Amino acid sequence: MVIVFVFFAFFVLFLFNSLTLKLCIQTEMSKERQPNVFRTINILVTILLISSYVEVLYT
Questions:
Q1: Of 59, 55, 53, which Cα lies nearest the Cα of 2?
Q2: How far is CA 46 from the centre of its chain?
Q3: Is-annotated flag, keyword Transmembrane helix (predicted)?
């Protein structure tokens, strides 16, 4: 169960990072602001994945 969820988490993070890159390119975001956007989205997605894992683990 844990291994499957880890692979799922990496896939989700990869998918969100690629979508974030497309967003940054499409909106012509400055290079100084891009790391902050990536960091914020990665932190929020990681929190979401951890909370969903805890929910699945204890139900």
A1: 53
A2: 6
A3: yes
Flag whether pLDDT at 59 surpasses 90. no
Assigned token pair, 30: 């400055």
Asked if 45 and 16 count as a contact pair (C-beta separation under 8 A), the reply is yes
Give CA separation, 36 vs 4, 12, 29, 46, in Å: 29, 19, 11, 15
Sequence letter at residue 31? K
Q: What is the pLDDT of residues 28-51, one digit of tens each?
A: 999 999 999 999 999 999 999 999
CB 17 within 8 A of CB 42: yes
Record the pTM.
Answer: 0.86
